[in-house]
Specification:
The chain folds into two domains: 54 residues, Winged helix-like DNA-binding domain superfamily/Winged helix DNA-binding domain (Arc Repressor Mutant, subunit A); 256 residues, Rossmann fold, CATH 3.40.50. Helices cover 44% and strands 11% of the residues. The chain is built from 15 helices and nine strands. Strand 3, helix 8 and strand 4 form a beta-alpha-beta unit. Helix 2 crosses helix 3 and helix 14 crosses helix 15. The chain is elongated and about 75 Å long. The protein starts with 15 loop residues before the first helix and ends with a helix. 42% of the residues are buried.
Amino acid sequence: MPQNSTRRSTKQISGEDIVVETAWLYYHDGLNQSEIANRLLVSRATVVNYLQEARERGYIHTKLSPEAFNSHRAALELRDRFGLKAAYILPDGTEGQDDHASRIIRGAADWLPSLLEPGDRLGVAWGKTIYDVAERLEQTTIADLTVLQLVGSMATPYGFSADVCSSNVARKFSAKCINLHVPAILSTAEIAATLRAESLIEKQLHAISHCNKTLFAVGSCNPDSHVASSGVATQKELEDYIANGAVGVLCGRFINAEGDPVSGPLDDRMMGIELEELRHRDMGILVSIGEERVPAAVAAIKGGYATHVVTNQSCAAAMMDLA
């Protein structure tokens, strides 16, 4: 049989098909660009153009194996130092804080599906970090998965609320979603107590207390932190918590450096999961962005809220310094 009998002319493959065929030969069959050019009777430059077009059309989704990020030295050291089940550490990059954040968000979105199993009940916190992770998730079906909103909703400067975070995660996983249909903070403790006793809200609060896995970020206690900018806490209330030892905020609740709850003026008015109910779940997935949040992240780990951590190398190093 003539050597070139296996070649396929581009006359036999036209339009969009040739782009798909090129991508298949390169990514699935493992042919190099020269081999593809020979197979399709085109130039190598044309193959390069076809591959670029495939990427631009969104046909190519490249992922690195989780082992690339959770089995290298920095990840293993962080895991062992804090007794975590796993750490997923991204390289810092060279483009500044926005690039760092983008890498961590993508890493969390790539890793999360592999951490979930059919029948899981995933509690989802709120905030820009969790919203961005939900946006980056690829559509994946996980059978019998339930996603639960862990804290009530508040308007934010970013244009989304807690129910959007949980709903988006559920949509990406084709999962059932249980939202918490109340504000995150009420004006008085009496109103909060009345709502907690309402049948529908009582059932929702009971449901979120039985999540077996959680996805969350921890906020700082800085004046520009999410808990203040979203209106959950006033500056005076934030200062009161800081004076009592608060270093971080988890699902609207304040924690000290050891991860223990810090009492303050918002406690009886907050609508959402209690800190004790967040501790020692089967899995707590903490997505930590920014060195200003490192003390809060370390507190969350020490407090037993996190078993898995996603961050970058510089933040991981700063966490090690605080261990």
